[in-house]
UniProtKB/TrEMBL annotation:
Presence of keyword Transport: yes
Protein encoded by which gene: lolA
The protein's name: Outer-membrane lipoprotein carrier protein
HAMAP family: LolA
Highest taxon of the lineage: Bacteria
The family this protein is said to belong to: Belongs to the LolA family.
A Pfam family reported for this protein in Swiss-Prot or TrEMBL: LolA
Organism: Xylella taiwanensis
Keywords: Chaperone, Periplasm, Protein transport, Signal, Transport
Localisation: Periplasm
GO biological process, one term: lipoprotein localization to outer membrane
Length: 230
């Protein structure tokens, strides 16, 4: 089933689960992974990532996302806020053009569309590990499953780390790139298996803010239609 949800990389629940959720639900492993991959001293995009994740426990910021088809036409555009708390709590909230919400509470992932008064829920599981960030989450897969490169020159004023799945690797994307400036992640670009491109710009990061406990809770209203595993 498809619900009109505007989340990273797709307009379907299934596509959102395929690669965006793992970015946050397994984010606790990023620091360890980068330490193993990068070494004590590292320049370039890997060094930026290492600095960005060092000491990270909670994170809050804003995003602007575009989904672009193979003809270069913008299909979807959304603006909202994101919050995460390690190891596996996430709140991804779209405010424009539609109000839509994703909450991962550590056990379940909720996707709520207030316009439809409908929520989808499922358990957080192993399938979430199929993500473009898996190479950063699990360093043993970095060179075994992906071709990793750092762009030599700046693009859009950013330093880029790019991942391309190797032949025979099961992945939900063709390529993924992460743009950094001054050791801060400011952009993420993912090309899916159909050639559709998702560009997410991040801004206003707050590192280790104190977040309210109910930030990562979702309780459906009495009249909300709930679909999935409760």
């Amino acid at each position: 089933m498809s619900i009109r949800l505007i989340y990273p990389g797709a307009v379907t629940i299934q596509a959102f689960h395929s690669w965006m959720m793992p970015m946050f639900s397994h984010f606790r492993y990023v620091v360890f992974a980068v330490a193993l991959v990068s070494g004590p001293v590292c320049a370039g995009a890997r060094g930026d990532l290492s600095a960005f994740t060092r000491g990270l426990k909670t994170l809050q910021g804003h995003f602007s996302q575009e989904v672009i088809d193979t003809q270069g036409k913008v299909k979807e555009h959304s603006i909202g806020t994101v919050a995460l708390s390690l190891p596996n709590l996430l709140r991804w909230e779209c405010n424009t053009p539609y109000k839509q919400l994703v909450v991962a509470d550590g056990k379940r992932v909720w996707l709520f569309d207030p316009d439809l008064n409908q929520a989808s829920v499922r358990f957080q599981g192993d399938e979430e590990r199929n993500s473009p960030l898996i190479a950063l989450i699990d360093p043993t897969q970095l060179d075994r499953k992906y071709d990793v490169s750092e762009e030599v020159t700046l693009r859009d004023g950013l330093r880029w780390l790019s991942l391309t799945p190797r032949a025979g690797t099961e992945a939900s994307f063709q390529s993924a790139s992460f743009g950094f400036t001054q050791a801060e992640l400011v952009r993420m670009e993912v090309v899916d298996t159909l050639g559709q491109r998702t560009v997410i710009a991040f801004s206003g990061w707050q590192r280790n803010p104190v977040l309210a406990v109910d930030t990562f809770r979702f309780t459906p209203g009495k009249n909300v239609d709930v679909i999935g595993d409760r």
